[in-house]
Amino acid sequence: MTMTRNTLPKNPVFVALDTNDMPAASSLAAGLSAFVGGIKLGLEFFCAHGPEGVRQVNKQELPLFLDLKLHDIPNTVAAAVREVSWLEPYFLTVHTTGGAEMMKAATTAATEAASRNGLQRMHLLGVTALTSLTPAQCQAIYGRMPEEQVLFLAEEALNAGLNGLVASAVEAPALRAAFGSDITLVTPGIRPTGSMVDDQSRVMTPEQALRAGADYLVIGRPITQALSPVAEAKRIAADLRPRLRTA
Ligand code: C5P
User: Fold this and answer.
1) Does the predicted model carry a pTM greater than 0.70?
2) Ligand 1: residues whose CB is within 6 Å?
3) CA-proximal residue: ligand 1, atom 8 (nearest)
4) Is 175:183 a contact under the CB 8 Å cutoff?
């Protein structure tokens, strides 16, 4: 199968290129393109290089996960969704704590921008509770423990028309039990055995995360900071191969 930025990758790993260094991001994207399902560009890269930088770094036209975690009033979020629709991201994130109206506005904007301009419609993912939050921090901020908070926000997000969720793999079984197999579940906070936890808190290994119900895995530093990012991505892909899609 020829991979384009709009086909679902068989490899579930989106590598997070969290850097402001364009040559480093480009060389990681090029080197890793055969061993990951797509690339994730987030706030650091986007704030440094903007939409033009995204086009430049994704020369391989891998599926693009634009992790901008939009969170503002509905009108502003809808406008931002329209602007980034030109980049044809496969995934774009919005914060579910922005509320139902904001998420509905994002959904409508994504659909309208795609049909008006003949673009591939992006899949909108709702960020629930950041995987860096400990249960105690989650309780302090939201008054709920992570699982309860994630389930509450997930319901809001899916009712508002979002296509899937970003959550920790720790919450994946509860999300699958509550919402079934139709939703797309993307899990950061992935740490292959032996890697550093860094600032993450609710973590799982790649295999554990898929077994728990994740569809896609976001992996950043364990690959990008490895002595050989290519070797690490290859190792992860080989470990996951028995569990990969066969389509
Ligand atoms: O380096 P590491 O694997 O921890 O990178 C995780 C990536 O996933 C980062 O780009 C971070 O912004 C993102 N992310 C996260 N937790 C969420 C949503 C996104 O860690 N809830």
Assistant:
1) yes
2) 16, 18, 42, 67, 127, 130-131, 166, 188-189, 198, 200, 218-221
3) 188
4) yes
- CA distances in angstroms from 245 to 10, 60, 147, 175, 242, listed in the order given: 5, 22, 28, 21, 9
The residue whose CA has the least distance to atom 14 of ligand 1 is 188
Report yes or no: 30 and 59 within 8 Å, Cβ to Cβ.
yes
Give Cβ neighbours of residue 104 (< 8 Å, ≥ 6 apart): 74, 160, 161
Kind and range of the H or E element at 124?
strand 123-127
How far apart are the C-alpha atoms of 115 and 117, rounded to whole Å? 6
222 within 8 A of 231, measured Cβ to Cβ: no
Cβ–Cβ under 8 Å, residues 230 and 238: no
What are the structural domains, with CATH classification, of the chain?
A: 13-243 (3.20.20.70)
How many Å lie between the centroid of ligand 1 and the Cα of residue 27? 20
pLDDT digits (tens, 9 = 90+) for 78-118: 999 999 999 999 999 999 999 999 999 999 999 999 999 99
Nearest atom, ligand 1, residue 168 CA: 21
Compute the distance between CA of residue 21 and CA of residue 243 in angstroms, rounded to an integer: 33
| Six-digit token string for 86 | 């030109």
Separation CA 38–CA 58 (nearest Å): 10
